[in-house]
Amino acid sequence: MEKKPNPKKTIAKQLDITLPEELLERIQTLCDERGMTIQEFVTDAIIEKLQLAHKERRKKVRL
After folding, report:
1. What is the pLDDT of residues 13-48, one digit of tens each?
2. Could you tell me which of 9, 7, 17 has the C-alpha nearest to residue 41?
């Protein structure tokens, strides 16, 4: 997962979610292996999902 430099300071807000323990353990293991935080992982995952949704939306036939 590639990080892009962000020249502007981003205003961040906290997101409180509940995940199944097994899923959280899998995420933590992956993050440990890759030397990243869960926050970085979740942020990257959300960005990737939004990019995918945008691409899918652009594929729709327009009249």
Report:
1. 999 999 999 999 999 999 999 999 999 999 999 999
2. 17
